[in-house]
């Protein structure tokens, strides 16, 4: 090892959710701040609080979601 950072290959982060509407936005923002090229796959279990709708809105606005 040379001690130099190696570039990451493709990264997919699975984000399981249920009633996480208040947390999903910040989680996705932090993920993309840390690894800008990472893709997020949000898996929602039919949350009644709007988590799925938020995930859909984020996906419509950002191809990484």
UniProtKB/TrEMBL annotation:
Ribosomal protein is among the record's keywords: no
Region described as Disordered: 45-65
The UniProt record lists the keyword Glycosyltransferase: yes
InterPro entries documented for this protein: Glyco_trans_2-like, Nucleotide-diphossugar_trans
Keyword terms: Glycosyltransferase, Transferase
GO molecular function annotation: glycosyltransferase activity
Domain of life: Bacteria
Domain Glycosyltransferase 2-like: 13-65
Protein name from the UniProt record: Dolichol-phosphate mannosyltransferase
Organism of origin: Modestobacter versicolor
């Amino acid at each position: 090892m040379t001690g130099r950072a190696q570039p990451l290959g493709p990264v997919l982060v699975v984000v399981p959710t249920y009633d996480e509407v208040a947390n999903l936005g910040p989680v996705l923002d932090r993920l993309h701040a840390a690894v800008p090229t990472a893709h997020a796959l949000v898996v929602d279990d039919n949350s009644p609080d709007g988590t799925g709708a938020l995930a859909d809105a984020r996906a419509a606005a950002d191809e990484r979601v």
